[in-house]
TrEMBL record:
Residues 1-26 form the signal peptide. GO terms for biological process: peptidoglycan catabolic process. It comes from Streptomyces lunaelactis. Pfam families: Amidase_2. Belongs to the N-acetylmuramoyl-L-alanine amidase 2 family. It comes from the Bacteria. This is N-acetylmuramoyl-L-alanine amidase. Keywords: Signal. GO terms for molecular function: N-acetylmuramoyl-L-alanine amidase activity; zinc ion binding. Residues 60-209 form the Peptidoglycan recognition protein family domain. Coiled coil: none annotated. Residues 27-56 are annotated as: Disordered.
Length: 260
């Protein structure tokens, strides 16, 4: 459309003429693609999705150390912490199975005294204890929320958590269902803090020739393993060891993972 601006300006006021010109230009541009519109056949890129949150599980109730050892141990060295938890090692205490809940604090104190007085360790070796009723107890000081290094699986204590089932669970023994569930919940929570799949595997480096593997060996373990996987021992007993696949599956479900 051709517009003679001079004729328009002569025949009408400047404001009216400007309005006509603007309308004419708009009409002539109709049908042209907008400069901000995507070219034909192309679509705008979609916003990048946010990364998925790590798999987690609810924190189980834990009986504090002060409930079984009111007087703190004098520490000779500061607590040693790792950067994360990549594995869980399951143990049994190799003590009797016919205890009552009221017996447990004394049982844990006896185990702690053995580790400190007879083995000359700074603290009890296990990070947690679980009794036959499914009650979870804090073990080594500071290890509930933090990746405190224990003394439970020689050569592989850094980056792992040691959970001791109170009792003896060798061939023919019965592992109480509440204990099994509590171990699964504890493992799911501790591993979930670092996004670790309980059914996966993890790489650890041996720090001690006294383990099954020479110092410096790079060893791949199931994320939830038994003491015997890293050391020359029958711990945690055949009855409990054969239930490790079930513990892994339970822990994964508690983290909300789809069954394998």
């Amino acid at each position: 459309m051709t517009i003679d601006r001079r004729m328009l300006l002569r025949g009408m006021g400047r404001a009216a003429a400007a309005g006509v010109i603007a309308a004419a230009l708009a009409a002539s541009d109709k049908g042209r693609p907008s400069a901000s519109a995507p070219a034909e056949g192309r679509t705008r890129p979609r916003p990048r999705a946010e990364p998925a949150a790590p798999w987690t599980a609810a924190r189980p109730a834990v009986v504090l150390r002060t409930d079984w050892q009111p007087t703190p141990l004098p520490r000779r060295k500061p607590e040693l912490s790792a950067t994360s938890v990549k594995a869980v090692f399951i143990h049994h205490s190799n003590s009797g199975n016919d205890y009552t809940p009221q017996d447990v604090p004394a049982l844990i104190r006896a185990l702690s005294d053995d580790h400190v007085d007879n083995r000359d360790w700074d603290d009890v070796g296990y990070n947690f204890f679980v009794d036959r009723t499914g009650t979870i107890y804090e073990g080594r000081t500071g290890g509930i929320d933090n990746p405190v290094v224990g003394a439970h699986t020689v050569g592989f204590n850094i980056g792992s958590v040691g959970i001791a089932a109170i009792g003896t669970y060798g061939t023919g023994a019965s592992v109480p269902a509440p204990m099994l569930e509590a171990i699964s919940r504890l493992a799911a929570w501790k591993l979930g803090l670092y996004g670790i799949d309980p059914r996966g595997s993890t790489l650890l480096v041996s720090t001690n020739d006294a383990s099954k593997y020479p110092k410096g060996s790079r060893v791949t373990f199931p994320t939830i393993s038994g003491h015997r996987d890293g050391c020359w021992t029958r711990c945690p007993g055949s009855a409990l060891y054969t239930l490790l696949p079930e513990i892994r599956d339970r822990a994964a479900r508690l983290q909300g993972r789809v069954p394998a």
